Amino acid sequence: xxLYDYLPIVAFMIAGLAVGGAILTLSRIGPTKPNPAKxxxxxxxxxxxxxxxxxxxxxxxxxxxxxxxxxxxxxxLYPVALVMRDNGIPAxxxxxxxxxxxxxxxxxxxRKGALEWR
Amino acid sequence: xxxxxxxxxxxxxxxxxxxxxxxLIRRNMLxxxxxxxxxxxxxxxxxxxxxxxxxxxxxxxFALVVMVVAAAEVVIGLGLIVAVxxxxxxxxVDELDQLKG
Amino acid sequence: xxxxxxxxxxxxxxxxxxxxxxxxPPGRVRHLGPPLVSIVGLVAAAGMSxxxxxDRQYTFYGAFRTDRLTVLMTLIxxxxxxxxxxxxxxxxxxxxxxxxxxxxxxxxxxxxxxxxGTGDLIGVxxxxxxxxxxxxxxCAMEVWRARSLEAGLKYLIVGAVGSALLLYGLTFVFGAxxxxxxxxxxxxxxxxxxxxxxxxxxxxxxxxxxxxxxxxAAPFHMWVPDVYEGAPTxxxxxxxxxxxxAAIVAFLRVFSGALIDVVDDWQMPLAVIAALxxxxxxxxxxxxxxxxxxxAYSSIAQAGYLLIGVATGTLLGxxxxxxxxxxxxxxxxxxxxxxxxxxxxxxxGQSIASLAGYGRRSPLHGVxxxxxxxxxxxxxxxxxxxxxxxxxxxxVEADLTWLAVVGAVGSAVSVAYYLRPIFVLWGEDPEPGxxxxxxxxxxxxxxSVLAGLGVVVTSILASPLLDYCREAAQALIAx
Amino acid sequence: xxxxxxxxxxxxxxxxxxxxxxSGSAEPPKxxxxxxxxxxxxxxxxxxxxxFFTLLGRDADDRALTTTAWxxxxxxxxxxxxxxxxxxxxxxxxxxxxxVGMLIVAYSTEYMNHDRDYRRFFAEMDFFxxxxxxxxxxxxxxxxxxxxxxxxxxxxxxxxxxYDRPSAVAAAKKAFVINVLGDVGLVLAAFVMxxxxxxxxxxxxxxxxxxxxxxxxxxxxxxxxxxxxxAAAKSAQVPxxxxxxxxxxxxxxxxxxxxxxxxxxxxxxxxxRCNVLYQLAPHASEMVAIVGAVTLFIAxxxxxxxxxxxxxxxxxxxxxxxYMIMAAGLGLYTGAMFHFLTHAFFKALLFLVAGVxxxxxxxxxxxxxxxxxxxxxPVAWATxxxxxxxxxxxxxxxxxxxxxxxxxxxxxxxDLGKVLSIVGLVGAVLTAFYMFRMFFRVFHGPEPExxxxxxxxxxxxAMTLPVIVLAxxxxxxxLIQVPTVNHWLDSWLDVxxxxxxxxxxxxxxxxxxxxxxxxxxxxxxxxxxxIFAADGGRRRVxxxxxxxxxxxxxxxxxxxxxxxxxxxxxxxxxxxxAAYRGFEPYGSGGLVRGGVxxxxxxARLVRATQNGLVRMSAFGLVVxxxxxxxxMILGR
Lengths: 118, 101, 479, 636
Hints:
The structure holds four protein chains of four kinds. Chain A is built from five helices and no strands. By secondary structure, chain A is mainly α. Chain B is elongated. Chain B binds chain D through residues 20, 23-25, 27, 32, 93-94, 96-101, and chain D through 607, 610-615, 618-619, 622.
């Protein structure tokens, strides 16, 4: 394997850049007739009803943070799954300990009311 | 061996330096956290590079650990920033000046 | 799989279980449950550790090594944590979040034990991060107090940078040797003769910076006074003792243990930062009006003394360092206990001025803190004197005479600020406004007595303790 | 047997201190305090006597023994035992410490009777005696230093006994800080020895030093100088003497104990104990002798103008210690110890009598508020006379023989010896003058204007008895060593003085100095009589205005405090001022304050970087990384 094997990736990147660049450049060419509907942000055809730069409630961040932690911790489950067959019971025990710890933290957070939407 | 170790190290060093520079010049706390993430991920790139270079998996395991640690750090950072924000409504680190001398 | 990792397992279980009682409805269980669980768990882990004193055992496929050094350090961490728990019983920070507080405290100990016994670079980083992350939260625990919050956030941001440096350094060490196992690294370095290898040297420089930050050596010390002042006092005491000890043992494991064959490469930088820490800490402490802040600077200087032991790279150096670490833990805890007490008794409890006449009103605390400060200042016959004497001797033996001189001069300067609280404590008349406003509680009495006894015992039983320290040092340096 | 007795001697005072210090918060009955406070010291003295007579009964070579409790620390080749050394030198010191100490403590039972914190006083006195015993009984330098530091601590507590009096607290701090300075010197000396000789036992050090260190090299000189820093601080030698006169803020028995019997002579003991090292360091020895001579002269001149009875005695003590240090520096170790012994008698006597007088006048200490006390206090008059005669060197009182021995043997000890001997003679004139100035003004002369508010009352037996015992000892104490007749002290100390050059003054010198010193004493006494007594005190009034400049100079104590202030403290302060505003005077104690001044400026520099910004900390990390990398590359 050498660098040439990465050629498709480079080609893909060039293509992507070309398309994006083309759209941006083309939009500058020709007449522009702005109207309010065109100026609105495009949200899959649904009309935006609130200002774009809206502040999200802080609780959103709190929940999102919890999500990040639990999400990332699950990353450990995959390597263990790979070697589970070779190591048998000890690996299972360790996995259980890990899971119980994570679940306990979740339970604590839940019980403390951090998941309540205020 | 596809990409030589040198490229890994260049990218890694670039990320790390970028992160360090960000820590030194940025004032927004969120951006500071971002910069630190950049540093950690710079290290991650190097770990993967070395791991391939020596043909061992240790480096990849290390990188996995680093990711989790980084996530935990960011979460706590965000939590604290939210708390500071609720109390003082500032995001500028230089406003944290009660403790000095 | 054997039982050698059992102390750490007990601690993990303690951290998990300590959360549970705080979910109970308000009342006795909720209030006393978490500290009680922590105390039981810590004592059990300590007892288990003592039983494991012996030759090296491996667990987790070699990722964790239980040898005499691990056991000794585990006991130091647990002792510090126990005193911290006792100090915290009525700490305002714990009022509404007792479960989290004690659980995180024990979790931090888990991280420390991992650092002390780790068999690879991953463990060094992971352990340091576990304890750091737990402490970021603990520092900011008094969220309603702006200073505490500020301390936590500052510590987090700067600490994360320190961690990143450490990680990058460890990465380079891994890259230079091709292994993360400390024992393999040691062999590889010896066999391939990696002295002067640029990648390894860069890695070591970064690791020194990262760990130096965690150990609060200069010039990585600037966060220390701020964070120490802002954090709840028991946490400050814990940081000044156990966290520093953890960083030092990481130094030992990586440098004195794995990289001992390239000692020429890392001796000088370590000696330099040790000297800088001694200078910066002692000089900075001179002008402080706050006792807590003064102790923060003092702990910077003490980190310098401890690093002397690492910098020597000899058996004698490590042995002296371990002894001094034990002594240092006892005397620093004793000094911080007084801050915790005064802080709760009067409005302005952190300042040195608020100690006026306190020794006569409360002779027990007065005597304990006096003994501790004398020990810190290095007065004979106290343990601080023995430890410093040995460390300087080790430095001279390792051809670092200049470092011993810096240490001795710094020590002489330090007398000036360590004595000031003592003079105020015994010499001056209490101001009328200094009447007690809040009852500090019984936990602090016990903690105070424990710390005082610790200083006295380490002083009197120097000889047997030094024997244990020698065995622990041999476990590190000898294969 | 006497080995374990040594531990009894050492630990009894400690037990007394602990029992008294930690026996609950209520003040126990005074009788109980007396028994615990005095009883322990008395038993300790009795045990010391047994040790003394046992050793006396043995052969001269068999008089030194070491008793080890346990091995305290073992550091490579360096082994440190908790061990006590009994030899003629330490036993002599122990006799004085426990014996004179016992008399002083017994005296205090009455003197302190109406004072507050009765129990604390005795606890601290017992603790002081314990520390002092540890200092002299230690068998190695480590425990010597420990005792040394504990003595400093105890004296801090005792001088600051009246802790609500700011001047007492300041004096206590000053004493402590200067003593710590001395401790640092000692620790450094011990460190050098440990590194060079791998041992800190007296036997080991003194045995190995001549061979391993050589004669007159840099290392032995360095050790000797460092040791002398410790000795000078403890023994109040110029320029570290300024704490001692201030230390008069403590209760009078404390002054007696600290100044007369024990603490200030620790420096003398140290130099004598380390005689082997000083023989190896001729230059350091000369320096010691010169410092002693300078001190004895300066202090004697200052004593002539003091108006406070205790300060006269304090300066006189500094001066007398100067004699001992001078003798030790010249190699006259026996002479130094002899003078130490007699000085302990007559100076303790003088302090205790001063206490009687102060007690009689309800706390008055100024000598111009005294006069004509002879008729009120006849016993005090007689005993003070004995003390003054002894210190002035009038035969056959104790001071005559000891001072004469120093001066005579110094005369025969080379050129430097001759010069210093003459300084000593001048000092003797001054000594006689200032002592009798005090004596005549207190006991003769006119009563102060307006008379005494309360008629001075003689003191009770507990105070009188120790005074009389000390008076007897001051009278006959000198007879243990009479030139050409009796050399008991020489032969007794012989074992301990491994390096004693055994200087023996020739008979001609002996007689000449005897005559000279008698003339000197007579001159001083005569002058004092002429000015202060002959004329009913009127001549004093006429003389009061004479030589105002000299007088002011002496009253300013040779301007030591201000000079140190100007030379050391002020520049440091200016430096601090220039760099940073709002420097406040900080710390205490001459030299130390100057050092602190410089250090404070540096501290402000450190603080300036400490602006509390996160970026600064991160920047510190980067700077540190660069420092580490540079050290790594340069250090290879």
